[in-house]
C-alpha cells in the first residue's frame, strides 16, 4: 500500500497492525499510516504499532516492580529466618524490630504510606547501622514504585553495601532500573553488571543479563548484545526454583529472538513453556509467566501474518483460564489475581483485538468478516473499560477513536482523540492522538487545526517532551518510537494543510524537509512529486525539472520509494510541455522517458539473466560476454548483471587473464546499490583479493582480505566456509611482502613477518577442524609459522 492517505480515494479501510516489539526503547506502541494513492482526499489508512520498551509492563517478572514483589519477598523471608542480621547493632530494640517487620508487611500489601512511616522513623533513630540500610532500601523501592526515580537513586546511594551483602545485588538492580527510567542507560549498565556479579546464577543474574542485552541492542552494540544473549543461556538457576524460573528463562530467550526479528525461533521458545495444570497447586507466578508467553506468541504470529492462529491461541488460553482456574487466583474482572495480572491481561486482550481485526480482512485490505471486525472493536473497548489504569489502555482508546474515523464520523473521532490527548498519561497514546486529531480535522476541512496538530520534530519536544532522536536524553526529553515512526507522515500532513490554507511557500519548505530528513521513507518520493506540482503551478519550470532530476537520481538508489513518484512527475512535465508550452518535441522526449520507465524491462532482464547463467564453462566465455552485453543494454546497473559478471570473472581467472578478472570484480565491489550484491558479496571480495594475489599485488590482496575479516569472520554475517582460505591467503600475502621487499626497512619487514605468523597461527587454531585444513596444509602452516618467527628474531636481533 502507498502511504499518501491525503491523496487516496475509493474504499475506506483502516488496518491496525498491533505488532509491538518486546523490549526496546520506550513502553510504547507506534502507529504508522499507509495508504493507496488516487486523486481526491479520502482516508485510506493502515495503522502500524511498532515498539515497546526496556521494560514493558506485561513483562512482569522482569520489571523492577516484579523484583520488588518477588526477589524482595525472598529477602523478607531471609530476614525472618535470620533475625540476628538486624541484631548486629546492640542498640536495636525489640520494639524497633517489630516496627521494621510491620513496615515490610505494609510494603508487601502496597500500603506505602504506612510502610514509609515505619521505615523513616527507623532511619531517624538509627543513623549508621544495619537496620538503617534495610529501611532505606524499602524507602528507595517505594520511591521507584511511585515514579520518583531520582529520589530512588539518591536513597539507594546512601546504603552501605559492604556492610549488608544481602542487600547489595537488589540495591544495584533497582538502582539500575531507576537509571533507565531517568534516561541514563550507561549508568544502568554499570549497576546491572554490579548486581549480577554479586549473585551469579540467580534470578538477579538472569534479570540483569536480560536487561544488559536490551541496553546493548538498543544502542546498536551487536557484539556486546550477542555476548549477553549467550550468557543468558549459560545461567544455571537452582533446581528448587523450577518450574517458574525455568519457564521464565525460556521466555527471556524467546524474547531475545523476537527482538532480533526471528519470530519463528521466538515461537519455538514460547511453545516450550510448560502449560499450567490449572489445579490447586498452580501458583500465580506460573500463570503470569505462561500468560506472558501466550501474549508474546500472539505478537510473533501477528508479525508473521498468522492472524487466525494468534486469535485462536489467545482465545483458547482465556477459555482454559475461565473454566479451570481456582477462584482464589482469579481477580474480580477475570484476570490473574496478582500484582501485574490486570496489566498483563490488558496486553493479551489488546493483542487478541489486533489479531481479530486483521483476521477480518483479506490480503487486499477488503473486509471479509464484518462480525469479526466488530468483535475487535468490542475487545479494544473492553481494554479501555476494564483496565483503564494499564499503559496499553490509552492506545486501545486511540484504536476505538480510529474506528470512528473509519466510519466517516470525523467529529466523534476528533472528540475521541482530544479526550485521549487530554486525559491519558501515556505519551504514546498522546502522540498518536495528536496525529489522529489532525487527520480528523483535515477531513472536516479545518486545515488550521490540522496544521496545528500535525506535529513536527520541535513541536513533539515542546508540547509532549518527547524526541524522535533515539540518542537524545537531554533537556528532560525521552525518545518516543511512535513519534519517530510517524514523523515523516506528520510533516507531510502539515505541508498538505499549509497548502490547503494557501501557504504554498511554507508548504514547499515542509515538503523539502521530508526527503532531507527521511530519504528512505515513502513520503520522500511523495514530497518530491508535490514539489514538482507546486513549481509547475507557479510557472517555475526550471525548479520543476530540478525536482524531477532529484527523483530520477533517487529512484536509482531506492526505486521502491522513488520510481512511482518519478514517473508521475515526468508525466506532469509531459503534460506541461504538451498542453501549456505546446512544445511537442520536448513533450515527445518525456513520453519516451515514460515508456522506458513504465515498460516491463525486468522481465527481459530476467530472461537474459537466465540465459547467461547457463554458461559456466571456460569454453563458453564468448557466448557469456554476448549475453551480458544484451542484459547490460537493457539496464546498465541491473541487479541481474551481478551473478553473470561474477561468473565471467571466474572464467577470466581460469584463463589466467587476471587483469580482466580484476576489472570486473572491482566493478562489482563498488556496485552502486551494494545491497543488490546479496549473499555473494563476500565471495566477490575474496576473489578480488585472490586475483591480486596471483598478480603478485600482495599489498592490495592483504588490504582487501583484512577488510573481509572485519566484516565476515564473526557475528551473524560470518562465512565459516570462506574464512580458512581467507586467512591462508592473508598469511601468504604478508609473507610474500616480507620476502619480496628486502629493500625496505628491517622494522617494516619484521612487521610483515609478524603479521603473516599471526594469521597462520589463527588459521591453525581456529580452523584446524575444517575440510580446508588438510594434513598438507597443516604441515605448510607449521613450517611457515616457524620460519616467520625465526625471521622476526633474526631481523630484530641487536
UniProtKB/TrEMBL annotation:
InterPro entries: TPR-like_helical_dom_sf, TPR_rpt
SMART domains reported for this sequence: TPR
Key words of the record: TPR repeat
Gene3D superfamilies the record matches: Tetratricopeptide repeat domain
Keyword tRNA-binding among UniProt keywords: no
Highest rank taxon of the organism: Bacteria
Signal peptide: none
Keyword Translocase tagged: no
Pfam families: TPR_6, TPR_8
First and last residues of every TPR repeat: 169-202
Name of the protein described by the UniProt record: Tetratricopeptide repeat protein
